[in-house]
Amino acid sequence: EIHIKEPIEKEVNPRLLPGELLLCEASTVYKYIQEDGSSRGTYGKLVCTNFKIAFLDDDSASDDNEPQFKNKIVGENDITLQCVDQIYGVYDEKKKLLTGQLRKYPETLIIYCKDLRVFHFCLRYTKEEEVKRIVSGIVHHSQTPKLLKRLFLFSYASAAPNNTDGRNQTVMFDTLEDWRDELERTKGNVKYKAVTTNEGYRVSEKLPLYFVVPMCVSEESILKYEGRGIPIWCWSCHNGAALLKMSAFPKEQDDSTSQTHKAFLDGIYKTISKPPYELLKTDDLSSSLPSLQDIQTAYTRFKQLFLIDNSTDFWATDVKWFSLLESTNWLEIIRRVLKKAIEVAECLERQHTNVLLIEESATDLCCVISSLVQVMMDSHSRTKSGFQSLIQKEWVIGGHGFLDRCNHLHKSDKEEAPVFLLLLNCVWQLVQQYPPAFEFTETYLTVLSDSLYVPIFSTFFFNSQHQKDTNMSGESLKTQSGPFRFLTVWDWSVQFDPKAQAFLNNPLYAEKPKPDKSQRKTARFKHQRQLSLPLTPTKSSTKRGFFREETDHLIKNILGKRIGKFINSSDEPPNSFREFYDSWHSKPVDYHGLLLPRIDGPEIKVWAQRYLRWIPEAQLHGGGTIATAAKILDLMEEVQSLQVKMDEEHSQAISVGVHSVPLLRNSARLSSLFPFALLQRQSIKPALPTSTWKDLEDEDDLVKRDDEFVDPTGDIS
Amino acid sequence: MASSSAPKYNSNTLESSPGKRTLKDGTNWEQNEEIPRLPGESRVTDKDVIYMCPFNGPVKGRVYITNYRLYLRSVENDPVVILNVPLGVISRIEKMGGASSRGENSYGLDITCKDMRNLRFALKQEGHSRRDIFEVLTKYAFPQSHNLLFFAFANEEKFSENGWMVYNPMSEYRRQGLPNERWRVTFINEHYGLCDTYPSLLVVPYNATDDDLKKVAAFRSRNRIPVLSWIHPETQAVIMRCSQPLVGMSGKRNKDDERYLDVIREANGQISKLTIYDARPNVNAVANKATGGGYESEDAYPNAELFFLDIHNIHVMRESLKKLKDIVYPNVEESHWLSSLESTHWLEHIKLVLTGAIQVADKVSSGRSSVMVHCSDGWDRTAQLTSLAMLMLDSYYRTIEGFEVLVQKEWISFGHKFASRIGHGDKNHADADRSPIFLQFIDCVWQMSKQFPTAFEFNEQFLITILDHLYSCRFGTFLYNSEFLREKEKVTEKTLSLWSLINSEKSKYTNPFYTKELNRALYPVASMRHLELWVNYYIRWNPRIRQQQPNPVEQRYMELLALRDDYMRRLEELQITNNSKISNSSASSASPSQMMSQVQTHF
């Protein structure tokens, strides 16, 4: 048998999605990574489409090594146009940021991605014409302003056959029914109502079609200022206290206008502070939390620490890692946000007070805080479908400006702020502090954050429900189909096959025991259990009367000493907060009850999976949390196969074949970067710091001593 | 148990039944079963005090002092506050306030502990109440300074296992395949005549005579000649340990030492150079020449390659830990946690030690080259490096017993000066000899176990227990500076081994995720991205930071294990009954799917 040998220049074609068009391409591009001082890589073709930038390996035939966790839409060497963060060109070993028109073309293209991947494409062996076309194509399509309708979302929606998964359990909150069900679920329906006032968006284009307000708020007031100054319901606590948000009036120069606004607000506050409503506490988030600008600045610095070019970079930044981290301020922002959420939870849970969050548009920090509070207080939000419904409620329908905040269209850098990422980072802190409390894994949060940049789902590509609705009707396009039908990100089967989806589910999650129908009456008891906190503040303080005076003495005596630091700390939050926090933490955790994050310095951590997953130097071969997670999964499979066997024994069926699923994991050898470990370090040599710190500035005296130095001034007796 | 001595702060799981009556003054406390006592432990005194808890404020209670511990129980039951402190952890006792002091609680005792906490008690300003308790505490906390024996010699506990049997140097070397045709066991140090800080049994190159060894000893600080610590089963490359050569200012040479190093290099048929790792920073090694020490120069040792590992001395480490304590006790630095942590340099030192050990291990494993490790005297940094490298290379040391052997061998038998570094029973708290070198090693082990959670048979509790008894003086294990002194004091006859306690209750110290893997090198990543502060040890006294115990992930895994065993048992039963049923052909019983509800299926 003789086969005709294939031409050496084997044609590799990109796999295109429906509606995806090839825009430009270049061959003999060398993609490489630097490791331990030497570089390795592969030759291939670099292409740019209206959806992605893709590198096609010349010898990509080795498909038998399919990764276990594969994204069906975005491959290992694909970068969606929205995922591109920055593009640099290397000219004579110098890096230059590429933005608009180019006069000279670089030898190497470095693409930094928003999901923290870094690609190095060497163009030295590529034809000049192709270099020009691919570089300017990539820069143009990924870095310059774009019209909304030119998003791939629309091409895909008009070309892709619509087979949306109808079985999705996520509540979308785009119908009145959904809001009413939510009111009923949280027992908020006594005092709050879902309104249709905004049908046809006659109140505001920023507000959703349907939303919930206190019963006593009239349609008239809602209409008066386009929904500003109106408390909008987010969620009701089991004790009836509610979490509300409100879009504030802009600061007015005109005195009389601001007087009218004030009078209007006073009226509103008055009505909703009366019984049956609980006391109201307002919190202006624009003054009590960092600004969006601060958040953007912090994140920009923070992510830069993980966009690493080579291992020299890695070890150079390792020396002062902690102070570098601190100087970004990102972790501190996470801490402050978590703290704020605890404060709100304390008001709701212990003080039975309604909390009204105020922000200019009520669509940024309001979304972060209200979502976090619900994740902490409502165990339903810790299930996968509950969390997704929460994101729909507070963010997607709630009107968070994803398009602007992610700067998907490159319209204005000023609007950009990673507000949703901030939420995911905060939720991750809770997930890692309380692993059994969540139905989803950190991998779920990571791929959710990646999905922010995949423009085939409408979820994160509109600023509001109104914007989506008005762009749904494909009128401006000459397509045959009527209104677009967009996919939702919550249909995970679009991105992952069932095997990969298993990594999104937490094997440690213990489902809430469902009460029997016959035990429904005990529902009230359950609520009491959730309280789990003393309602009267410190009964012990009175009991300890004798010691109280002593305490005062104590404080006076030790002030200025180290203990004083803690009692008299200036940035200590109000006492009720501390007490609430300490009291909760001193009790065993109920994973289905209230969950408070730990916020002391050592407890706030870097989301290693998201931020370190592409860095080969950070890889632990056979280690990381995945090592234990894999063992748990293996054991669960074993238990399940035992169950099957037992059932067979019961039915006395003759077992046909082996039932146990072939174990996909070899737990001991997985990399800590799993399931994202696509870039494996090739050498099995350990990673060694190439630069270490050596000088101890202020301890010269000690440094020079010998081990057995005897200190003559020492107290030897 | 010292490890359980965290303040029991309002915890539901602990002894806080509200109706329980506590003791009134003058009751005979020895009859109260709530106050723990070890066999051989005897009461000394007790007194009403106010414990100035830095977390919960002043707590009125009664303190009981024995020859082993200080135990405090609060008068209040809600919450009940308990302190259970072995006297061995006490580093310093100070009187605070004088007769003229104003305020009730300004007069008392301030106790500094070696385990990252301070205790402060306020006393009544009457009689000689403070003087008495101060004297009793001082006497029993510092027995060495009062010509008393350690509690370990009075301890009459009984254990099912004998920890002194764990380490037998001969069988450990046999496990490594030694002696062989290239390495021999020598008894030259049987009576510690060659080196009084080395063990009696040593492994040296077959081609070096005892006479050679004696000559080499003259050229090595404190006669600590290069001897074998570990041999790679495949490459036959070895890890040798020793002290610095006595080069001095004039750059002295010693032909015997030079030849001896060549013999070591040749022992595994190696053509390439012998690698010498000097644990110190280059400048310190140079500075040591002034006091007669130094390092192997290229001229004198052309067949050796020398690297400095830049690990700092014991004083730097002591200061670093002191700074760490400042930022975590009593309260955790809040505003600038990360930069405060960085400024202690504690993790930076951990990083350097781990980096050094990785280099040693990698050289032996993939470099196939024998290495020699030393610092100045070869009992601090050298012990850290050899034992960590061995832990990386030899999975046996990652088991409970293997780790005990490792500590017993590389640390205890090779003369890490535990008595001096810890200051067992010694009142001289400012002694410059004290340094947390062993703690630093255990921290490195913890970092490794954190990075590889399935690679170690032991759990975190095992490491914490070792550290607790490093100070407690309840066991003879860590007492004295050398094997020679321990033999003189008849430690193995008169005291118990810590390993007796641990091995009698192994399940408590076992990591359920442990997966046995043979011959696999385990390299941690010595990057700040992965190193973290060991909160469960350094900040364990702070109730606010306390981690969830038991660890929920571990707990879930244990539940699954139990479930699996249960199913396997039932399945076996079913198969037996089914087999008998086949002959009887009768009907079935309840469905097993009822049990299935316990396991969730996520597939």
Please provide a brief summary of the model.
The complex is a heterodimer of chains A (717) and B (603). Chain A is α+β, with helices and mostly antiparallel strands and 717 residues long.
Question: Could you describe the 3D structure shown?
Answer:
The complex is a heterodimer of chains A (717) and B (603). In chain A, 36% of the residues lie in helices and 12% in strands. Chain A is built from 25 helices and 14 strands. Chain A has helices at 128-143, 152-159, 176-185, 219-224, 255-273, 285-288, 292-304, 311-318, 321-328, 330-349, 365-377, 384-396, 402-405, 419-433, 442-451, 465-472, 498-501, 523-531, 539-543, 545-558, 562-567, 575-585, 608-612, 625-651, 700-704; strands spanning 22-35, 38-49, 52-57, 78-80, 84-91, 94-97, 108-113, 118-122, 192-195, 211-214, 232-236, 242-247, 280-284, 354-359. By secondary structure, chain B is of the alpha+beta class. In chain B, strand 6 (108-113) and strand 7 form a beta hairpin. The radius of gyration of chain B is 27 Å and the shape is globular. Chains A and B meet through helix 8, helix 9, helix 20, helix 21 and helix 22 of A and strand 2, helix 5, helix 6, helix 7 and helix 8 of B.
Characteristic key phrases:
heterodimer; A: 717 residues; alpha+beta; eight-stranded antiparallel β-sheet; four-stranded mixed β-sheet; 36% helix; 12% strand; disordered C terminus; B: 603 residues; 2 domains; seven-stranded antiparallel β-sheet; five-stranded mixed β-sheet; 14 strands; 14% strand; disordered N terminus; Prot-tyrosine_phosphatase-like (chain B); endosome (chain B); cytoplasm (chain B); lipid metabolism (chain B); cell projection (chain B)
